[in-house]
Fold:
Amino acid sequence: MMQKLAHHPVAVVVSICAVLSLAAASLVFIANEKFAPLTADQLTTTADEWRTAAVSGQLLVDQLNNEKVTRTFFTNQCYFLSDNAAHDQQALQSATPEDALQSQYQQLVSMSMQITTSLEQLCTAFPDQAQRQQIYLQLQTLADQL
Amino acid sequence: MSKYFDLLLGILAAVGGFVDLGQLIFGVQIGAKFAYREMWVVALATLAIALFMEMSGRIAAVTQKPAFLVLRERLGDWLGGLTLVAAVIVNFLTCAAEIGGVAIILKLLTGGNWLLLGLVGGLGVLAILAVASFEMLEHTVGLLGVLMLVYVVAAVKLKPDWGALAAGFLPNSPQGAVSNTLFYWYTVVALFSAVLLPYEVYLYSSGAIEDKWTAGDLHINALTAVLGSVFGALLTIALIVVGAKIFLPLGIQPQLPGAAIYGPTQAIGKTAGLLALGGMLFAITGAAIETALSNGYALAQFFHWPWGKSKKLREVPKFTWSWVITVLAAMLVILLGIDPIKLVQYVIVISVVPLPLTYYGLMVAAQDKGLMGKHANGQIITVLGWALFGLVCIAAAAAIPLLIVTHGGQG
Structure:
C-alpha cells in the first residue's frame, strides 16, 4: 500500500490537506461554540431544550403509569434523560451570557438545576407511585415556567 | 424462481436496512418541529438514492467492476484518493455512532452496564461479520429489521392529517424567525444526507458482485433499488408522523432514540413498543455491519486487494483487517465516552460533503457508452441524474455553513 501511495504523492498531500482543513474547521467551530458569549437566541433555544427535558420526564411517567413501557425501559430511559440533563447543566453553568442577559441566564441555571435534580429522583422513584406523581407535578411546574 | 425469492428478500432487507440511528433521530425530530413540511425532502432523497443505487448495481452487473474501482478509474488517483479518505472517515464515524446506538437500545431492553453493553455491541458486530456469509448478512439482519414496520402501523393508527401530509410533498420553507428558517434548512440537509449516506451505494455495488449479478439481472437490480428505497422511505415517513403526532402537540423535540417507541406504545400498546425496540436493535446493528464492511470494500477495491465476504477470511486478509480495525476503533470511540447521538448528528451533516465526488464518478461511468454499451444511461435518466447530482452539490455546499449558523443544529 505504501508503495502505491508513494507513486501518488500529490493525492496523499491533497488528502492530508483535506483532512487537516476539516479538522481545523471543526476546531474553530468548537472553540467558537465554547467561548463565544450566549446570545438571546441561544438562551431561548437552551430554555426550549430544558422544557423538552422536563416534559420528556413527564411523558415517561405517563408511559409507565399507563403500562405502556417496561420498568427496565423506564429506569434506563430515565437515566439517559438525567445524564443528558446533568451534562447540559454543566455546559450551561460554564457558559458566559451577554451582559444584558445575566438575570435571564441565572434564572435558567436555577431551573435547570431543579429539573436535573427532579429527573435524578425520578430514576429511583418508580416503585413509589406517590413519589413519582410528586416529581411529575414538579416537572410540570418547571416546564410551565420555561 | 430463486432470483425472485432473492428479490423479495432483498426488498424486505432494504426495509430494515434503510433506517439507521441518524434517520431515527432526525425523522422524529423533524416531525416534532415541522410536522409534515419535509415530506418533499424524503421524496427527493428517495428518488436520488434509488437512482444512484440502480446505477451502481447496473455498472457492477455489466462491467463486473465495483463502485470504488470505477471511482478510481473515472476520478483518477487524486480525486479518487480524496473520495476514499472521506468515505473511510465517514464510514468509521458512522460505524461508531451505530455501535453506540446498539448499546443504547440494549440498555433500554436489558439494563446493564454501559461499558459492558458497548463491548457487547462492538464485539457482537465483529462476531456476526466473522461468522456470517454475505447472503446471511444480507437476509437475516435485514429481515429482522422488518420489525420496524410496527412504526408504519403505529403511524396509520395515530391518524395523521393526510391532507397536510400530502401537502408536505410540495417544496416549502417556513415563515417567521430567521433562526427557525435556518434550522429548517439544516434539517433538510441532514435528512437528505441521512438517506443518501454513501456507504449504501458502496455496499450495494459490492453486493452485486458478491451475488454474481450479470447484465441478465438488471431487472432484479432496478426493482430491488426502487422498491427497497420506496419501502425504506415509508419508514422515514412513519417516524416523521410519530414525531408530529406525539411530540409536536407538546412542543418538544426529544433527541433520545428511545423516545421514538412512544408512537407504537401510544397507538398499539406495550408489545408494539418492545417490537419497535427489537426492530431498532436489528436495523442499527445492520447499519454498523454495513458501514464496517463498506470500509473493507472501499479500501480493497481502491488498492486492488483481494476482497469478498463470500470468501474465507484468510483468503482476503487486508479486506478482513480493514473491517476488523474499523469495528474495533469504532467501539473504542464509544467506550471512551463519546456521545453516539451527538456524534451521529454531526457525522450525518458532514457526510454530505464528500457525496458529490462519489455520485459524479457513478454518473460519468453509467452514461459512458464505451463502458456500458447498450446499458448506458438513457436521456431521461441522464437528465434526472444530473439534476439530482446538482441538488447533492447544493446540499454539500450548504452543510458546513448551516451547521455553524445553527450552532451544531441547535436551532
